[in-house]
Amino acid sequence: MSSLAVPVDTPSLLGVTIRRSTVVGKFFLVYSTVMSGFFGVILAVVSASAFSTSFPVILPIFGVAGSMGALSVFSSDRVKGTLEYFLAYGITARRLFTNVLIAAVVLVSIIVAVAVGVGVGLYVARGHSLSEDLLVRLGLYAIPMTYASASFATIVCMYWTALSSPRTGMNSPIGIAPIIGILPPVGVLVVASVLEATGAVSSFGVDVVAVLAMVGVAVTSLLLLAVSGRLLRSERLLSPA
Amino acid sequence: MLSLNQAGTKPVVEDRPPPGGTGVFCRSVSSGYLGSEVLRDISFSIEEPAVYVVLGPNGAGKTTLFRTLAGVLRPYRGEVRIGGIPVDQPASRHHLHYLSHLDGMPEGLTVREALEVYAQVEGANSTDVDRVLGLLEIRELADHFLSQLSAGQRKRASIGRIFLRDREIYLLDEPTANLDPKVAREIRTLILELARDKVILYSSHNLFEAREIGRYVLAIKGGRIEHFGRIEDLRGSRFVVGVRVLAPSEALADWPREGEYYTRELAGPDEVPALLRDLEARGVRIRELREMGNPLEDLFA
């Protein structure tokens, strides 16, 4: 047995959290990656305008669904006493939250890389030009909103998991997380449709509203992460005695 | 403050941490969940290396006590020191191992990978993981995903983490729960080997297990310490044996019955051989003889 020497520092556990998230959430990850790539191909084949208008809406939805593995790890760790073990060895609640959030971001990155790579690649291969409008929608809204929505769903549902009794099924935070995650992009879609229909703002104005909404969701997620250590005492992360 | 004198024979009163700065020290500790007290004004001090069995019925506060000692729950009042260091200081964690009542295994990994995560947390290495896999005889499970294991196998693998590194203090919350008797006995044997020079707090609601492994007992009821002393003190309170027979016997006609067992109260285990000889001489064909009385029932009634 090793000696009584004191460890220098607590490990970050980030790498293993990411790996576990991909293993635990592999169904969600594969399904979301395949489906987002599939829709990217279909839209690119149909028409340039279909791709330009629909792909930025679809991407965040599959991004949220594909990130569920990270939240599943958090929920499982709470129920099975793994969070309790980490807390007992000096790993803070905030670090645990941060690891899960970064794992969700990594999962989203896989989906975004495949979907955008396949979709935009085929779009260009079919002779369509990358318009400024499409680049703005992808670069300033769709891709950042995919990250923001998945982060929002993950952090809100981590809070919810910590504040509620452990439960399973569709009524659990994991079951409802996809709905929470797609609320921001769907909300933006509804608002944008109303604004465009009423002619209240220009097309550029709609894009600005969408970007502002994305920034709001991202900032909210980061704020929730920043105060997680203060708002959630470690006893909230324990399994029932 | 409940403590034990140097010979470890009876509780004595102390109100300051042990001068050597070792062991577990609790003074007037109240703790619980979300403002609701579960432990109430608990005080005790432990220094002598031994197995201290924390006994109590369900809901007595055993798990809350372990969580408080491990620093997972912050006490509402009072002082906790581990190895002489206040439990709210991170350095105190390096003096103890904590095994919660759940297996705490990280899903999505194999047994080896899970132990490597524990090793990372505790500053151990791959060599230690290999040694623990051998020690617990789970090498054949090393590359199995945790989701493929039975509850007993998971528990066995999770116990491995307390053998990764040497510590002074071990907090083991029902470590043999959900294990079959053979494996449970093997785990207890390993823990007893550890206990030669360690302070081990071992929770259980099973007095028979407590007697097998413990030298001292710390009994909790309603969040308070009901008894702290040598386990023999509990044994002496009442000793009842039950005899199950292969065929009815006139010799037992006046013995009280508890289900299939004819019962008799003895002064202690030393009287059992004489009782057996007497029954055999009277032609009683014994199928089983076991201890019936559970002093916990008296303690927690």
Largest sheet descriptor of chain A:
none
**Strand proportion of chain B:** 25-35%
- Helix fraction of chain B, binned, reads 25-40%
Low-confidence stretches of chain B: 5-13
Name the CATH homologous superfamily of the largest domain in chain B. Answer: P-loop containing nucleotide triphosphate hydrolases
Distance, first to last CA of chain A: 31 Å
Please give the oligomerization state of what you see.
heterodimer
Q: Architecture of the largest domain in chain B, CATH level 2?
A: 3-Layer(aba) Sandwich
What series of H and E elements makes up the topology of chain B?
EEEEEHEEEHHHEHEHEEHEEEHEH
Percent of sequence in beta strands of chain A: under 5%
Give the mean pLDDT of chain A.
88
Helix/strand structural class of chain B: alpha/beta
Total beta-strand segments of chain B: 16
Unreliably modeled segments of chain A: 2-8
> Which series of helices and strands of chain A comes N to C?
HHHHHHHHHH
Overall tally of domains of chain B: 2
How much helix is in the residues of chain A?
over 70%
Descriptive account of the structure:
The complex is a heterodimer of chains A (241) and B (301). By secondary structure, chain A is mostly helical. Chain A has one domain (14-237). Chain A is built from 10 helices and no strands. Chain B has 2 domains: 2-235, P-loop containing nucleotide triphosphate hydrolases (Rossmann fold); 239-300, 2-Layer Sandwich (Dna Ligase, domain 1), CATH 3.30.1490. Helices cover 27% and strands 30% of the residues of chain B. Chain B has 9 helices and 16 strands. In chain B, helix 2 crosses helix 3. The interface between A and B is large, with 37 and 43 residues.
